[in-house]
Amino acid sequence: MTRPSSITIVTTATPEQAYACLCDLRRYGDWLPRSASYRGTTPKRTSPAAIGNTYVDHTPLGAVRGVVTDTSASRSIAFRQATDDDALAIDIIYRIKPAPGGCTVTRTGRITISGRLRPVAPLVTALIRRENRRTMARLKAHLDGLTAGRLPDA
């Protein structure tokens, strides 16, 4: 198991907008384009994420199944992702906090690698962390775009 790794962004979006974006798994493709490490998300339900909802992330390792493990309206949402053989498991939590002019979103992840992936664990961990940085940069750009032209709070 790796130690947790966190990334925080500051955005002009409201906590409600950030939370709604993270809960709408079917629209991840609108703001998170495919990459060498991420090839899309397929939710099993079309409604916003709720505890127990499942989805599949498509990656070079194959399908990675995911489940929503916790939610707190406009404050946090958590996921657990794993390969079918559990060689890779990732626990992710997004924490959203109000900030002047918008909010902060912090993504904290813990990666567990075992079995067939253990010999390449440092490489897999580095690739996942690089993808996490890309994800958060794209999330920030998307959220800031939602508020472009919004008048500042008086």
Descriptive overview:
Helix content is 25%, strand content 38%. It contains three helices and seven strands. It has a seven-stranded antiparallel sheet with strand order 1-7-6-5-4-3-2, covered by helices on one side. The protein is globular and about 50 Å long. It starts with a strand and ends in an 8-residue tail after the last helix. The mean pLDDT is 91.
At a glance:
The protein has 3 helices and 7 strands; from the N terminus they run βααββββββα.
List the helices and strands and how they pair.
Layout: E1 5-11, H1 15-23, H2 28-31, E2 41-43, E3 54-59, E4 62-72, E5 76-83, E6 88-99, E7 102-113, H3 121-146
Antiparallel strand pairs: 1-7, 2-3, 3-4, 4-5, 5-6, 6-7
Can you list the strand order of the major beta sheet? Answer: 1-7-6-5-4-3-2
Task: Provide the low-confidence segments as ranges.
Answer: none
Q: Structural class given helices, strands, pairing?
A: alpha+beta
What is the percentage of strand-forming residues?
A: 35-45%
Any key phrases for this structure?
154 residues; alpha+beta
